C-alpha cells in the first residue's frame, strides 16, 4: 500500500489552481487574432494582421534581437562566474566561505527599484570613462543583468556541487592529478548538467528583466520587455498579444521537448 498516493481531492484542487493560473494566458491567444487596432476579442472574422505587423516591424525584430543578445551573453557570464565561485568555495571550505556566500546573496534582499537606481548611477558614471560600457549601451545592459542574475546562478550551483562526493577529488589527487586536472577532468564533468540548467535559469531571468532595463536604457537599446511595456503604456498595441502568443507557444514547445527527452533517457536506462 502506497501511503503517499495523492487523493482525488488534491488532484481536483491542483487542476482548479492550474486552470485559474492558465486562464489569463489562454485569453491572450484569441486577442492576438483580432482585426481591430486595439486589444479586443475577435468578433466574427479572425485576422493575422498583428502577426504580419510584428514580423514587418524593425522595432519589434530589433528588440527581440537585443533581448536575445543580452540574455545569452548575461547568462553565459553569470554561469561562468557562478561556477568559478562555487568551485573555489568548495575547494576552500572554511569559515570565510560562509561570509563570501552571504555577500554574494546580498542583491537578493535589495528591492528591485533600489538595485535599478544603483545600477543607473553606476552606468552613468561609467559612461564618463568608457561610453561603450555605460548608460544605454548593449555591454552596459549585459553587465547590469549579469550582476542581477549571478546570485541565482550561485544558488543553483551550490545545490549541485553539494551533491558531489568529495572522495572523487581525493581519489584524483591520490592518482597524481593536479588542481587544474581535477577541476577540468573530474569536477566539471559532474557539474555540466547543472551548468546547463543554471544557464537556462539565468537566460530566463535576463530575458524577462524590465525594472533595471527601464532605468539604464533610453533609445539606443530597446529590449523585448521594454518594447512590450512601451506598447502597453503608449497605445495598447495588439502586437503585444501576438508576441505573447508566440512566447507561450515557444515555452510549451520547449517544455514538451524536455519531457520527451527525459522520457527517451528513461527508456534508454530501463529498456
UniProtKB/TrEMBL annotation:
Keywords: Cell inner membrane, Cell membrane, Membrane, Transmembrane, Transmembrane helix, Transport. GO terms for cellular component: plasma membrane. One of its GO terms (biological process) is transmembrane transport. Belongs to the binding-protein-dependent transport system permease family. The chain crosses the membrane at residues 12-33, 64-87, 99-122, 142-161, 193-219, 239-261. Residues 64-258 form the ABC transmembrane type-1 domain. Its main location: membrane. Pfam families: BPD_transp_1 (PF00528). InterPro entries: MetI-like, MetI-like_sf. It is found in: Cell inner membrane; Cell membrane. This is Polyamine ABC transporter permease. It is a multi-pass membrane protein.
